[in-house]
Amino acid sequence: MDQEYFDKLAQAVIDGEADVAVQLVNEGLGKGVDPIEAIEKGLARGIMKVGDDFGAGEVFLPELIMAADVMKQATSILDEKIKSSGSTRTSLGQLVIGTVKGDIHDIGKSVVASVLQANGYNVEDIGIDVAVEGFIESVKQNSADVLGMSTLLTLPLQVMGEVIASMKEAGLKDKVKVIVGGCPVTQEFADEIGADAVGFDAADAVKKVGKLLGHS
Ligand code: B12
After folding, report:
1. What CATH number corresponds to the domain at position 195?
2. Residue 23 phi, psi (nearest 5)
3. Is 201 a pocket residue for ligand 1 (Cβ < 6 Å)?
4. Which of 102, 109, 167 is nearest to 135 (CA)?
5. 107: Cβ below 6 Å to ligand 1?
6. In-domain check, residue 89
7. Could you point out which of 18, 33, 148, 159 has its C-alpha 20 to 30 Å from the C-alpha of 101?
8. What is the total count of domains within the chain?
């Protein structure tokens, strides 16, 4: 697909036009567009623009919510496509992934979950606003090889450190690798809290999880 197509996708998010976005996504899939490219080159550019304008006080929360809803509707179609593309392989490992307590952002985390699944991992997505105990329980229940935690907000960052401390107390940290991600998460922060890796986007997540589990 050409740049004009990705620009139209971004614009549909900026304009808050769900019908247009869904139509464009379906048209694109019909023409063989790569669903990850549609998210990263199209929809994500749109939502980042709205996010920057929101940060600058140029757009307000209702518009941000509307744009996020368009993004969510369009990505859910693409997520299904991404997941189904990897469904026939044997599992390379079990992951648990969630957004930490205090944060309800789930678009990026869900994209990462779908892309990891498409790349051969079993992924248990435990959702948003997950407390320390929620992560620990799910890691145990799923016998996870890797735990992924996401946050886009500054305040809930500390929860990531609390989860790792709790994993150490429960004797889980030696067996389970931890990868963290989201826009405020840096390599320095990951090192500070004792995470094993940080992923900056979905492709990076696949690369880093592969490395953690010795697949690459
Ligand atoms: C969409 C959005 C929303 C939507 C969320 C809808 C949803 N269902 O998720 C809504 C409107 C609900 C929302 C609400 C709020 N938001 Co908001 N939101 C955004 C926005 C514009 C885009 C986020 C997004 O979806 N990006 C697209 C995806 C694809 O990218 P991504 O999330 O970064 O994920 C990628 C990587 O980070 C990475 N990744 C992410 N997670 C993980 C996890 C792992 C394990 C790995 C390996 C990688 C990884 O891979 C992903 C794929 O490439 C951002 C702007 C920004 N710069 O991020 C603001 C932003 C995050 N929001 C912000 C704020 C302030 C809020 C609110 C507090 C606003 C308010 N006053 O109520 C509330 C939060 C309430 C709460 N308690 O959580 C601020 C945060 C500032 C800060 N540093 O704390 C931002 C930065 C906007 C801004 N410029 O001010 N928001």
Report:
1. 3.40.50.280
2. -65, -45
3. yes
4. 167
5. yes
6. no
7. 18
8. 2
Task: List the domain range (segments joined by +) for residue 46.
Answer: 3-84
Range with the poorest average pLDDT among 7-11, 118-122, 157-161, 176-180: 118-122
Structure tokens that stand for 78 in this block: 């693409």
Here the tokens at position 149 are 């935690």
- Does residue 69 belong to any structural domain of this protein? yes
35 Cα: distance to centroid of ligand 1 (angstroms): 20
Helices marked H in 34-177:
35-37, 44-55, 61-84, 107-118, 132-141, 157-169
pLDDT in tens, 103-158: 999 999 998 998 898 888 999 999 999 999 999 999 999 999 999 999 999 999 99
Q: Residue 102's closest CA among 134, 129, 140, 139? A: 129
d(CA 76, CA 95): 20
Instruction: Give Cα 52 to chain centroid, integer Å.
Output: 19
77 plus 39 within the same structural domain: yes
Q: 154 in ligand 1 pocket by Cβ < 6 Å? A: yes
199 Cβ below 6 A of ligand 1: yes
Give per-residue pLDDT as tens, 151-174: 999 999 999 999 999 999 999 999
Q: Which residues contact 196 (CB under 8 A, 6 or more apart)?
A: 177, 178, 179, 212
